[in-house]
Design brief:
binds calcium ion; single chain; five-stranded antiparallel β-sheet; 381 residues; four-stranded antiparallel β-sheet
């Protein structure tokens, strides 16, 4: 066991206040193709948004109002200090939480959240990194802003602000990817002077990699990896080093994309869905020059968190996408075969699924959306 893990366990034995009976007995959940899995309710949160594992038994959970929790598998929680104040409202607040790939050495944590402009009228996302310290009380120290979503806008939606680090050994090792939504304004997704409707790629310290694709289209464009996105709430690498993203469509037309360097994903020029006001948007097939999704959904699933499964507990899911569905109230299993993807099975137990993650032991954990959002652990038994 590493020095870090020893510290973590010693620490966690001290700070977790003991609650009795929080975790519930496992209940069976049957997929629409008949696969049976088990769900165990671990702990409840006020509007949880994201989670990331420190070990099999300990994870971080963020909530939209602005709390970051250290949680163990018995459902015990400790609040983490030093989290900045966030602009909570609409679709925004505290967002994603991910670990630096060398977290066990440097204890660096990356958070995304929404802040107000100086005049208090406009909003935009921010990415901050800080060191997670254990002591009498867990806390973040040495907080440092590494990205600001520009320009800020009045809208309270489509921040996206999902984060993913390129895995070790991949072409993107140590690179931080950020989804930046169109802020409900559509056209910024094709505008090279706005970092909205883009996937952003940065070095771990926030500096701009010189091999990003758009070097001659202005300062902001140097941070872009891909353009033409609407509201990408899921972002995850697979074992081959490919980056996948889920994207909320307008009325229908949700997408699962493979994110490629310099590509244009078409929003708002094309979508397999249409506008909420009933006007139609040409489908992706009409514009082969714009990158088509690997899979799109009509009717909507409202996709949020995404993981590409790599565990051994569910060997039949290895290499496949697991997507949290909001309006579809489901965990959606998408089978990936080479370059192709299709929906394989839907697991629904009546809850909107905000985020999905894989624990080191291969169990799959979901965060249910809303004010009484449960953290649920999914296993085979
Ligand atoms: Ca698209
Ligand atoms: Ca369409």
């Amino acid at each position: 066991m590493s020095y870090f893990m020893k510290n973590l366990y010693r620490f966690s034995a001290l700070v977790f206040v003991s609650f009795a009976g929080l975790a519930h007995a496992a209940e069976t959940i049957e997929g629409d193709k008949g696969t049976v899995i088990y769900g165990e309710a671990i702990a409840k949160f006020d509007a949880p948004w994201a989670m990331t594992f420190l070990s099999n038994d300990i994870l971080l959970v963020s909530t939209k109002p602005g709390t970051l929790w250290l949680v163990n598998s018995s459902g015990q929680k400790a609040k983490i200090g030093g989290v900045p104040k966030v602009a909570y409202g609409g679709q925004g607040g505290l967002g994603d939480v991910v670990l630096h790939p060398d977290f066990k050495k440097n204890q660096l944590v990356y958070l995304s959240f929404v802040e107000l402009s100086e005049n208090g009228r406009e909003r935009g996302a921010v990415v901050m990194r800080a060191r997670l310290m254990f002591g009498q009380k867990p806390r973040l120290v040495e907080a440092e802003r590494i990205w600001t979503q520009l320009p800020k806008r009045r809208s309270k939606g489509h921040f996206s602000h999902r984060l993913a680090f390129g895995p070790k050994g991949s072409a993107h090792e140590g690179k931080l990817f950020i989804t930046s939504g169109d802020r409900q304004l559509q056209t910024p997704a094709q505008d090279f002077e706005m970092a909205l409707g883009k996937v952003i790629r940065l070095n771990a310290d926030g500096s701009v990699p010189e091999d990003n694709p758009f070097q001659n289209q202005g300062t902001l464009a140097k941070t872009f990896w891909s353009v033409g996105h609407r509201n990408a709430l899921g972002l995850a690498f697979d074992q081959k080093g490919r980056l996948w993203s889920t994207e909320m469509g307008p009325r229908d037309g949700d997408e699962l994309n493979v994110i490629q360097r310099g590509a244009n994903y078409g929003w708002p020029i094309v979508s397999d869905g249409d506008n909420y006001n009933g006007t139609s948007i040409p489908d992706h097939a009409t514009r082969p020059d714009l990158m088509a999704p690997k899979l799109s959904w009509v009717p909507t699933i409202a996709p949020s968190g995404l993981v590409i499964y790599d565990g051994s507990l569910f060997p039949e899911w290895k290499g496949d996408a697991l997507i949290g569905g909001l309006r579809s109230r489901a965990l959606i299993h998408v089978e990936i075969e080479g370059d192709k993807a299709h929906e394989s099975e839907r697991f629904s137990w009546g809850a909107r699924v905000r985020d999905v993650a894989q624990a080191p032991d291969g169990s799959v954990w979901v965060l249910q959306d809303g004010q009484d959002g449960w953290l649920v652990k999914l296993t085979k038994q």
